[in-house]
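Revision sheet: structure tokens.
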Amino acid sequence: MSGARLSTLALSDFRSHARARLELGRGTVAIWGANGAGKTNLLEAVSFLSPGRGLRGATAAEVARRGGSGGWRIAALFQTPEAVREVETGALPGEPRSVRLDGKAAIQTDLAHLVPVLWVVPAMDRLWTEGAEGRRRFLDRAAMSLIPDHAEAALAYDKALRERNRLLREGARDPHWYAALEARMASAGARLAENRATTLTALAAAQDRAETGFPAADLAIVYPEGAAPDTEAALAAALEGGRRADMAAGRTLTGPHRADLEAVWAAKGVPARDCSTGEQKALLLSLVLANARALAARGRPPLLLLDEVAAHLDAHRRAALYAELDALGLQAFLTGTEPGLFAGLGASVQCWEATEAGGVTTLAETAAP
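Predicted:
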């Protein structure tokens, strides 16, 4: 497997983990145990090795262990083709999250250039039926994995958007203030739109060339107002022309922050929102696997975090999933309530049992099922 591989993970006071250290091999990692044992907390820690708030969208204060110091720390070693890379992230009590790469202070967006991290968690089962914000986040995480600079564009756009919305709510009318913010929004927004379009093209290609047991989806980016400006000049003009309506609404009504991801089960011609719960899950997994496939083809296989996925797949789809993980050769982390769920992964799977007592998780390596 080319790309980066997580070889060591150490946690301190993260969620239910007072102390934990895992030495990891090249294959799939399976964590099993009872509900509430802290399995998802471990996956969440791995997700914090990428920019953002992790797979639960949590703040730095929310992931600190109850009864702990109020701070937390995650330390990891990545084996890359060039060198061993050291990552450390955490927060002191009451402080924001910090990041260090190879012993030097860094920012979160730097993590996007190290290794992509993708995940599927039970909360995402509502992806196709919830509001557009969740699908937009899903699309942007896919874009960030394929185009690491997407994270910087998203941060720049969101910051300018928040400032413009504040001016709108306050009733400010100075055109120079608006013009300066709109120029920043137009520049970053055009990059967002281009990156999202590139991502959809990459996902479509990854689906088309795959032999998979999961359904393909036709994807499109849509806006509530119909066609949206997607070039820098067009977006700047739309923002300037929309100031009066935006002031009346108290928020910005035009731009990439209004985008939505639309998916249709290709073989059936059925929108994802109208599919059954099982079909929606299959479409979600199909897109995440396509994302992983596109990254692997570029020599950047991701870390793939699959929380309680195996238990919700029938035997055919579970075998198809394990076959794809083996074919992609990426490093995957799976959770489940009992080890038998991972029997199809073969002898190379590395298993850990999670147990909980008094709100603290203990991990013990076990034999493969």
